[in-house]
Design goal:
Elements (H helix, E strand, L loop, with lengths): L3 E8 L1 H13 L1 H8 L11 E11 L2 E11 L5 E3 L9 H17 L2 E5 L5 H15 L3 H4 L13 E3 L9 E6 L15 H25 L6 H5 L7 E7 L19 E6 L5 E5 L2 E4 L7 E5 L1 H6 L9 E3 L7 E8 L6 E2 L18 E2 H13 L20
Parallel strand pairs: 1-3, 4-5
Antiparallel strand pairs: 2-3, 5-12, 6-7, 7-8, 8-14, 9-12, 9-14, 10-11, 10-13, 15-16
This protein binds 2-oxoglutaric acid and fe (ii) ion (FE2).
2-oxoglutaric acid binds next to strand 8, strand 9, strand 13 and strand 14.
Length: 381
């Protein structure tokens, strides 16, 4: 006979409420079933961290359950875009994306068309790469000044900033083989699927913003400035620093996936929201280009990765960008046509990309001096 269930719930406030309400409504069922095994139907937003039962002889006396709950960030099902004729499904996804991009600048995508097997293979390859000695990794040392960025950036000596990265460019770029051989095929496949998804999300955003049909597609018609970064965040020490560099993404749309280890947090209304992506989902976020073009209608949200204690975190970020020669500026659709003033000066994407690269290769003494999109903000003083 089960006597007690102890539940600890981690996550954001609303997520906790949802999780606890869910647990309460299942309490009867849980009690009668739990003698054998913890059984709870989990929504995509709620997942187990751990559960442990204390047994006395054949009796289970107590069960500890830890769930991670995160109800805030919307999860958008994109399957309607891969199935002919599901117009209602498309409309639903579009409305959810519109709300997510103006509220959070972030959403989680499921049924996104990127094979899950490819995502897990890619994570395995990057883990094997980062396990190599530095001298091997440095054979692919970061190429100074290259756009898009390319090569391996080792972790700085600073114990507060232990993370290393491998930047990789599309297979159709002339010097695309500057990356470890194990990545070559995976990169071809990843650029293929992730650029397809980039096209799709870009066209949905185009429609959400009320832009003329295919406007963004015609503006952003060159894929050679896209890039992929494989990240390795070292485990944080048991006590002391957790590295938390805040940033927005400088590109158009970013897609991220991880080895299921939490750490990503999004800033909203003065609070950090921890993101717990369901298995196989992608984190999607709007970058600075969309924020500028839409004159702040869609947000490029500040986010950070808090290094987890005791274990490494691996992730991939695919940066769907625009060509460096493109002018990025608030569109008349969101300024003159609405009687609003532009919030940013126009700039060439390559200038901004270079300033952001310098942030990485020559970090300023204080993180507040990192160059971000506010560099181009028009202030009314
Ligand atoms: O690793 C992650 O979850 C996020 C990475 C990220 O924010 C980035 O690459 O810009
Ligand atoms: Fe980011």
């Amino acid at each position: 006979m089960l006597k007690c269930i102890y539940v600890s719930v981690f996550g954001d406030e609303r997520g906790k409420e949802v999780a606890l309400a869910g647990l309460k409504s299942k309490a009867k069922y849980v009690r009668s079933e739990l003698g054998k095994r913890m059984k709870l139907r989990l929504t995509p937003e709620i997942r187990f961290l751990e559960d442990e039962s204390i047994e006395r002889g054949s009796r289970i006396e107590r069960t500890f359950v830890q769930v991670m709950a995160n109800s805030v960030l919307p999860t958008v099902d994109l399957s309607a875009y891969f199935n002919q004729g599901d117009e209602d499904g498309k409309k639903k996804a579009m409305l959810e994306i519109e709300e997510a991009c103006s509220e959070y600048g972030f959403f989680l995508a499921v049924n996104h068309g990127v094979p899950l097997e490819l995502m897990s293979r890619a994570l395995q390859v990057s883990k094997s790469f980062f396990e190599l000695p530095d001298q091997e990794k440095l054979k692919y040392s970061f190429k100074p000044g290259s756009s898009p960025p390319q090569g391996f950036l080792p972790a700085p000596d600073d114990p507060t900033d232990r993370k290393e990265h491998l930047f990789m460019v599309p297979p159709y770029n002339s010097d695309s083989n500057y990356c470890p051989p194990a990545f070559q095929q995976i990169l071809k496949d990843m650029f293929h699927y992730l650029s397809e998804l980039g096209f799709l999300v870009e066209s949905i955003i185009n429609d959400c913003l009320g832009l003329p049909r295919d406007f963004l597609k015609e503006y952003n018609n060159n894929r050679s400035w896209d890039f992929i970064v494989s990240h390795h965040y070292f485990p944080a020490p048991e006590t002391g620093y957790l590295e938390k560099t805040c940033h927005t993404d400088g590109n158009m749309i970013t897609f991220v996936f991880t080895n299921g280890v939490e750490g990503l947090e999004v800033y909203k209304d003065g609070k950090w929201i921890p993101i717990t992506p369901p298995d196989g989902s992608l984190v999607v976020n709007v970058g600075d280009i969309i924020q500028v073009m839409s004159n702040d209608k869609f947000k490029s949200a500040i986010h950070r990765v808090v290094r987890p204690r005791g274990r490494s975190r691996y992730s991939y970020a695919f940066f769907y960008s625009v060509h460096g020669d493109k002018l990025v500026e608030p569109l008349p659709h969101f300024t003159i046509k609405k009687g609003e003033s532009p919030k940013y000066k126009g700039f060439l994407y390559k200038e901004y990309a270079q300033l952001r690269l310098r942030n990485r290769t020559h970090p300023p003494a204080s993180p507040e001096d990192l160059i971000g999109i506010n560099h181009y903000a028009i202030t009314n003083s």
